[in-house]
Amino acid sequence: MKLTHGSIGSLLLVAGIVGAVACGSNDDDSNSANSPSGPNAGNGNGGNGSGGGSSSSPPVGDPNSGTWLDLGNTHAPDHAPPVPTNTGAPTRGGTLTFTNIGAPGYWGRRIEAEPGDPRCDVQSETINFGWGSEFCCRQKHEVTSNTLTPFNEQLHMVLDGPLKVKQFVVYQPLADNAGPWAIRSFWDSRSPDKPYNFQFSGPKNDTTFDGVLGNSCTFFAMQQKKFPCGHGSDPYCPGSDLDYDGWPGSKLVVVLASMPYADDPAMAPRTCDEHPDQRQQDSPWIGISPSELNRDGWSGYHPCHCFNNTPGGQLGDGCGQINVFEVIAEASGPQWGNRDIISTGIRSYQVGSLGGVTCGIQSCGVEHFPNDADLVDVNSLTAMKAGAVVDANNRAMKEGPAWRRALDDRYYLFLLDENSRTVQVAVMHPGKLPPAAQKFLPALPNTVTRADIDGFVNLRLPQ
Asked: Is the pLDDT of residue 423 over 60?
């Protein structure tokens, strides 16, 4: 939960370092291209989206035709492979695999209630603001499944600049996790005003995403179907610009993007940071958050939210969030902040926090790592020789896996898979795609097989 861009160093970073040697940690414990195609494709950007009022209604697709019945029996538009922009030799790539994700438990879900309601067993509080007050009721939302919970709920995507995105795609199972998957949402910088089943919300209420996010600029990405906030909504949400369905169940997200420095003169006209020293808040972020958190009326910042079960603080032991690729701003201090290192960490009621390695600029200068490394060990200050695996049931490990920031294009991928209870995160150079990734990169076919998904689950990079 990024309360302010760059403030995460003081709120959500490592307080207890497990197995750290340098400055890292393996445990984060602190405070679209064209119009739709296919049958009945004339419904614009993908029809009504998935869902209904439930927070986890699955999408409805036809595994034989590869179309989405709940999107007007359409599929993603035909598209040509992108043209990446790269300099120098291809890099090694990397994978960071989180296993055994999901557990029985609960988080405090916001419900519509009046003061004194006995259902408010997590939080019952009248919150006073300068302009008035609001009653907050949170009830235990009990979870009995261990199947990727809570990340099988509806999730929104969050993108923070500086970022330059060329393609942005979400795959989901058409009918069941064991069958074929298809593109559920598609966006391409070559036709930025024609997304397929994407709803965007950015600075100054901008709903058109052109792919270029300046320093400290934030865009939220959702499905196009409105979520019915207001009276009777479940989970309760008062209403905001983010009242849209997220993606429930299993999903594979593919982003082709670069992370230019914030003080790159070409990025200056797009900045949302008024500070004269753009480097201090240079912290791109690709995250995935519970839709119910983002729909709280304050884009995830409302004091009545599901992020924490523990009152006060920022433990993140509630409804979950994944900081898939997060740079910690150097304004957070030299112990934590480093614009050249990217962290990946998971937060939820299951473990509190998992992963989230950081390494500040005082100890982790980029000169320590070879130019062709993507996945690095910040504890030993070396390049990782193999993909890293973090087990939610056995978190201790000697390595501190993190990413070396690339200024040119990379494929940033993350898979949340119910079948294997795995969150797989990967970075790949477009010029060095392993065979398992070539099943869907760079062509991004409309459908992929379950075997293709399993191949990605089992991929370990570098090899």
From this structure: yes
- At 74, list the tokens: 């359409």
pLDDT digits (tens, 9 = 90+) for 200-242: 999 998 999 999 999 999 999 999 999 999 999 999 998 888 9
Residue 407's domain comprises 8-104+146-457
Report d(CA 436, CA 123) in Å as an integer: 46
Instruction: Show the tokens assigned to 388.
Output: 């890293």
The number of domains in the chain is: 1
For residue 248, give every residue at least 6 positions away whose Cβ sits within 8 Å of its Cβ, in sequence order, or none. 50, 51, 55, 56, 57, 58, 59, 152, 153, 154, 155
Burial 120-138 (b: 16+ CB within 10 A, else e): bebbbeeeeeeeeeebbbb
Of 313 and 255, the one with more pLDDT: 255
d(CA 440, CA 180): 13
The answer to whether residue 111 sits within a structural domain is: no
Report the DSSP beta bridge partners of residue 322: 288, 346
Judge whether 122 lies within some domain: no
**Other residues' Cβ atoms within 10 Å of the Cβ of residue 1:** 19
299 dihedral zone (left: phi>0; alpha: psi -120 to 50; beta)? left
Per-residue pLDDT band at 313 (split at 50, 70, 90):
low
Task: Assign residue 7 a region (left: φ > 0; alpha: ψ between -120 and 50; beta: otherwise).
Answer: alpha
How far apart CA 410 and CA 429 sit, in angstroms, is 5
Q: How many CB atoms lie within 10 A of CB 25?
A: 28
DSSP assignment letter at 238: -
- Reduced to 3 states, what is the DSSP secondary structure of residue 370? coil
Predicted pLDDT at 130? 85
Distance CA 446, CA 463 (A): 28
Q: Which two tokens stand for residue 174?
A: 């058409």
136 Rama class: left (phi>0) / alpha (psi -120 to 50) / beta: beta
Q: Taking Cα atoms as reference points, which of 55, 236, 22, 249 lies closest to residue 147?
A: 249
Residue that has been written with the tokens 């043209």 in this structure: 83
Greater model confidence, 52 or 355: 355
**Residue 30 has which token pair?**
């602190």
Cα–Cα distance between 90 and 409 in angstroms, integer? 11
The size of the chain, in residues, is 463
| pTM, to two decimals | 0.89
Distance CA 224, CA 11 (A): 32
Is 131 part of any domain? no
Whether the pLDDT of residue 454 is over 80: the answer is yes
The pLDDT value given to residue 434: 98
Q: What is the distance between the alpha carbons of residues 270 and 256, in angstroms, rounded to a whole number? A: 19
How does DSSP classify residue 367?
G
Q: Is residue 440 part of a domain?
A: yes
